What we know:
- By secondary structure, this protein is an alpha/beta fold.
- It has a domain of 141 residues.
- 45% of the residues lie in helices and 13% in strands.
- The strands form two sheets. It has a four-stranded parallel β-sheet with strand order 1-4-5-6, with helices on one face.
- Strand 2 and strand 3 form a beta hairpin.
- It is globular, with a radius of gyration of 22 Å.
- The N and C termini lie far apart (52 Å).
- GO terms for molecular function: AMP deaminase activity.
- One of its GO terms (cellular component) is cytosol.
Amino acid sequence: MLNEMEELKELKNNPHRDFYNCRKVDTHIHAAACMNQKHLLRFIKKSYRTDADRVVYNAKGNQLTLKQVFEKLNLHPYDLTVDSLDVHAGRQTFQRFDKFNAKYNPVGASELRDLYMKTENFIDGEYFATIIKEVGSDLDDAKYQYAEPRLSIYGRSPDEWTKLAFWFNKHRVYSHNMLWMIQVPRIYDIFRAQKFVPHFGKMLENIFLPVFEATINPSANKELSVFLKYITGFDSVDDESKHSGHMFSTKSPAPQEWTIEKNPSYTYYIYYMYANIRTMVDCRFHFVSQCIH
């Protein structure tokens, strides 16, 4: 580096500040991946020791205890290792979105993902919340480390925000060193094919209308209003390797007119997300200002 020695000298002369005590923020991490693999393994074993006989899972109407879940998978937590969990992304996941998503299934078992990494399940996401709070406690102890984990809102139904806010408030998933991002997967084509939504406009409505309602009338949406105070932004996510044939232009159909099962382009998603987010920010700023005055 051209100024390496000068920068090194400046660093040495800077009192009480180095890499370890400057504040660092992880701004791109999914909540389901905020813990390291050893932390997850340790929590799974701990939960089995304390909750083996607790009913924690609903398998198509059949309620199972934690012990029965592991027996169904032909596993015992004592035998698990970080290698057998297989939740660490490596070179084999590069440009392979399918393999990357599979890493969210401990031991390749979707049952364990539902139990330990979901906000909606038989135990109302208790294990997931506990893991995140432990991560938040570690960040608090570290003092100079912060995180901005992502939670998903899909736009499949209008009650997603209500359920997520319920989970957040019930388990008090708060940390001074942690705020939250909302990620929106670009999977309209899947929802349309399964007839969850009649058009793209309905998906946008499911994503943003509850936020506007909680902003305008927080007393009628108390849990969501509290949750929104900890949200810092939105993101759009999907398999980046997929080709998009549609070119967004002034001739593109409006969201309510996009009724085909084909997924809109990335630019189409971003334009309408930006339009709603910008309006939402102005709306929230206006109502907060009115409350202050």
